[in-house]
Write a structure and sequence with these properties.
single chain; alpha+beta; 33% strand; binds zinc ion
Length: 242
């Protein structure tokens, strides 16, 4: 969109933006089993066991380090920590999720009600952070072609069960630049405290934006649009601007 058209639109409308980030935690083993998370560059399905393959009867055991890294993130954003927490099952069927549910946290996240402050071209900006919780990553689908040119989809379970932290902001962000700066600042924070390498190109930091528009001066949120799979800070900014 040309800059003039964008600024004309922004005279009348205001964007309401919330950002969801998934980041892979820097642990030696997966969330609920002893399989190594150092599977990058290794053969597909070489880092798997009955737990992360979702086989019946397998018993998950919590990775203490993953819990500590989410608690550390909570402390770094000034969030509060619950007295007790629990796991919930998020049920859905997809070939990358053999159990038919993802182990996640629903109403008792390990961190809630934090903030993050960062610089923008208009000065410092603070967004509220609704929550940070722990969950397990899914397997990875690889779509390709077989020897006879037929289309096929393969599943690599090396990523299945890797610890994942989901961080959700309040709908406080108003511009594409603020969204990009938030993601950059969060990456810096996660790297500084050692929670994640947060490399976007390697899928260790995945950003989604929920964007709606409302007429300036009104309170009600407009219809929400979800933008997923943005793999660079620049694409976060450009997608939201669009
Ligand atoms: Zn495993």
């Amino acid at each position: 969109m040309p800059a003039s058209a964008l600024s004309t639109a922004l005279d009348r409308y205001e964007a309401v933006i919330g950002i969801e980030v998934h980041c892979q935690l820097k642990t030696a083993s997966k969330m609920f089993c002893a399989c190594s998370t150092a599977y990058d560059g290794h053969r597909p399905n070489s880092h798997v066991c009955p737990v992360c393959l979702g086989l019946p009867g397998a018993l998950p055991v919590i990775n203490r380090r993953a819990v500590e890294l989410v608690l550390a993130t909570g402390a770094a954003i000034g969030a509060s920590t619950p007295e007790a927490t629990r796991w919930d099952r998020k049920n859905y069927f997809y070939p990358d999720l053999p159990k038919g549910y993802q182990i996640s946290q629903y109403d008792l996240p390990l961190a809630s009600a934090g903030t993050l402050t960062f610089d923008t071209s208009d000065g410092p900006f603070t967004t509220g952070i609704t929550r940070a919780h722990l969950e397990e990553d899914t397997a990875k689908l690889v779509h390709g072609e077989g020897p006879a040119g037929e289309r096929l989809s393969l599943v690599d379970f090396n990523r299945s069960g890797a610890p994942l932290m989901e961080i959700v902001t309040d709908p406080d962000i108003r511009t594409a630049e603020q969204a990009r700066r938030y993601a950059e600042e969060l990456q810096l924070l996660l790297r500084t405290i050692g929670a994640s390498d947060a490399d976007m190109e390697r899928g260790q930091l995945r950003v989604e934006a929920n964007v709606s528009l409302r007429k300036r001066g009104t309170e009600a949120f407009g219809t929400r649009v979800e933008v997923k799979n943005m793999n660079s800070f620049r694409s976060v900014e450009r997608a939201i601007e669009f």
